[in-house]
Amino acid sequence: MRKKINEAMLKMMSPQPGGAASALPEQNILAEIFNAAVAAVDPCNAVLNSVHVENDRLVVGRKSYDLGAFERLVVVGAGKATARMALAVESLLGNRIAAGLIVVKEGHTVPLSIVEQVEASHPVPNEAGQVGTQRILQLMRNADDKTLVICLLSGGASALLVAPEEDVTLRDKQETTRLLLNAGASINELNAVRKHLSAIKGGRLAEAAYPAQLLTLILSDVIGDPLDVIASGPTAADSSTFADAWSVIAKFGLQKTLPSHVADHLRRGIARKELETVKANDACLGKTDNVIIAGIRQALSAAQAKARRLGLESITISDALQGEARDAAHSLAQTALSELALMKPGKQRCLLCGGETTVTVRGNGRGGRNQELALAFALEIDGVSGVSLLSAGTDGGDGPTDAAGAFADGNIVALARSHGIDPLRYLDRNDSYDFFRQLDAASGMQYHFKTGPTGTNVMDIQFLLLHKLE
């Protein structure tokens, strides 16, 4: 089964050229390394490598659960990679599963025989996500101490699991999410606010499931793997408070533009007129186990191994890249130039990093953090030979576009300008998607990187290929 899964994944992840566009040799190498990284964190294999059934016991690391002690087994969850996690759980437990429901990003379903899939929007939540989440909460409320709940969480679950508090509407949450994203809020900041507007985040799913036994399997898409931040921590203790959520709003100057229902709810929470999220001493957490089964470190380790098999000296420089995409591009460019200066002629080296940057939206263009990073990087290394970059989302998506990311090198800026395309203008209006689209169409090259949904999600990865010319 695993061999077939891997073959299907590699075929799906092969970059999709646009028409007669041609890829450079450096791009082919970077794409190979990307494919190896993503295959290493395939959600189905991650579950199968972490969980097994032995003597009627479900074994997860050092923990085990007597399946005979439970009358019902229920599977729930959400995320871009959760469908493939559910595929593995079905293969392990089959007809033992009494009911199952997961909320996945539109276009990220896989054929399942038992667990139902609800497709919803990401990164801004929609009504489909709200309906699916309410159904999950109802399954949890119907669970008792003879129920084993397996919860599957992966990147994107914060937007897909949407259950606004009674005095907050879905439209309020949508607008709040949009304001924070456009302001450049980090995932930690965004989730601190989301948790305090939700009936499922911040440990509230665990609270709803109690007294059932809850096992959560997590594919991490957050730097450092904090349980309370991944998917906004629906089954973990939350250390953030209403005051923290309001501090995020104040940091970005959104007090006056925030929907009034949201502002009122947060203020009531600060005044202790609303229930806080679940804290570490809550009884429900005594029957909750959270297990991280894969994350960015596994992806980078596989990428490094692949680069070495290709004959490249490879170094992982960070698994926690964050901050503004343009600032990250500047930092990566400086690192690349410094490394290149120290290399001997004829040598090649691959630098690897991963994480999740942000973009403060000032223009009205289309793009995502990886395409913006690649465009900014191209401007930083304009005219430099021997430096190539791939910045891409491991889920195959970058912002509200069909691209996973983009390639960049020292020739892009001159090439674009020779076709009447001004890179700086596109960057200024956050229009990186249209920059790469027009560049590829005009030049016949393939700088856009498109894979389609990969079925996994462990943040973004950036690979730098350095070649010191003779």
Automatic annotation (TrEMBL):
Source taxon at top rank: Bacteria
EC number: 2.7.1.31
Boundaries of every MOFRL domain copy: 350-460
Name of the protein in its database record: Glycerate kinase
Annotated Gene3D superfamilies: Glycerate kinase, MOFRL-like N-terminal domain, MOFRL domain
Keyword field contains Transferase: yes
Keyword ATP-binding part of the UniProt annotation: yes
GO terms assigned for molecular function: ATP binding; glycerate kinase activity
Gene Ontology, cellular component aspect: cytoplasm
Key words, A-Z: ATP-binding, Kinase, Nucleotide-binding, Transferase
InterPro entries: GK-like_C_sf (IPR037035), GK_N_sf (IPR038614), MOFRL (IPR007835), MOFRL_assoc_dom (IPR025286), MOFRL_protein (IPR039760)
Residue stretches making up the MOFRL-associated domain: 30-267
Originating species: Sideroxydans lithotrophicus (strain ES-1)
